[in-house]
UniProtKB/TrEMBL annotation:
The active site is at D312. This is 3-phosphoshikimate 1-carboxyvinyltransferase. Monomer. Catalyzes the transfer of the enolpyruvyl moiety of phosphoenolpyruvate (PEP) to the 5-hydroxyl of shikimate-3-phosphate (S3P) to produce enolpyruvyl shikimate-3-phosphate and inorganic phosphate. It comes from Sphingomonas brevis.
Amino acid sequence: MKLSARPAGPLQGEAEVPGDKSCSHRALILGAMAEGETRISGLLESDDVAATARAIESLGAEVRRDGKDWLVRGRPWEGPVAIDCGNSGTTARLLMGAVAGMPGVHAMLSGDASLAARPMQRVTLPLARMGAGIQGGDHLPITVEGALLGGIEHRNVPASAQVKSAILLAGLGTSAPVTVIEPVPSRDHTEIMLHQFGCQASVDDGPNGWVTSLGAQRTLAACHLHIGADPSSAAFPLVAAAIVSGSTIMVRGMLVNPLRTGLYEVLERMGAGVELSGERIQSGEIVADVQVRAAPLAPCHVSVQQVPAMIDEIPALAVACAFADGESIIEGLGELRLKESDRFGAIVAGLAACGVSAVADGDALRIFGGGKVRGGASIATQGDHRIAMAFLTLGSAAEQPVEVDEAEMIGTSFPGFVEVMQSLGADIG
Ligand SMILES: O=C(O)C1=C[C@@H](OP(=O)(O)O)[C@@H](O)[C@H](O)C1
Ligand SMILES: C=C(OP(=O)(O)O)C(=O)O
């Protein structure tokens, strides 16, 4: 299915952004590993999260809806099972870790063509060092055989929350020390959520990097979790607010964990009106109401260290940079080539098709904005949800409509994207 975005007048209102995808995967997996029944309010109901829900059901957990909430009852995991992770890297990598620490459980994980092209040894090598049985190479399908694991001290370079989380989840099955060291901190939702389930993971800023260590208490007790709105999904309506002249958009209850808010800090530096209000703690995470107002944008310079806090928002940031007046530089984007598509290449090609000059300079992306963008292009999304949403956002502020060649996969992370954008006044359909 193709979709087009046509230039729109000012966008106004509150965007209904669904629950955070990273937290939704973790809530289901930890709920399935816990004793008792976990209630999840605000779970993202998307294709990627559905893949995790199906996987934990096949491993033995009970998953059911209760009004707007979801309930997960943990049970001893059973195998062998075959798990189709679809398009979801988080499903595959976190579940490999969780299964690795469960003696007697065998899981054969597979995925779609995009996921099967993504590297997995970053997870399976440390899990094998801990003692898990791994069959397969760097790509799915891979079989994981759970075992009584030993401990590990793993240097996680480049920083990856999926790798760190897989190791922490595996570590729940051993009493040995489990430590992950990262050059810059990756998102810490697993650590925060472990606390809600009665476990601890401490984080220290040591001389060799950020050190995350699993505490001694390793059995999980069911809890009630409230998941905030996803900042990676909110990025699209909020960037649209920044680039469509005269717009103001609000997202209520958005997760503003500082390891996820890089985009919003950069947008503010570029000159957009970004305001946070009503900050509160919800299930250990900070959430707030976030408002973005359009303004003339200055270019930005993003360093390697800042990228992990906005890795999934780079396509949205690139769109904002296209409308900034001058050259923006975003450094350290090597990992962007290894997502659902080569997002680096897709951004450069898509911007060029829309009349914006952008070049890859090693792992840095240089975007030469001129304040206005022509548009008038059909974009090859390469089956990537974030590329599709980014260029539909661009089309709302360009001089001519922008079409994307495929839009179904938007449902992997933000199923109501089109309706939400339309409710704000965008002309997408
Ligand atoms: O842990 C997570 O939930 C995620 C971590 C990030 O990946 P990496 O761990 O590869 O950085 C991110 O890109 C992905 O969308 C979700
Ligand atoms: C990279 C992403 O997700 P995953 O790694 O879970 O496929 C994403 O949602 O942008």
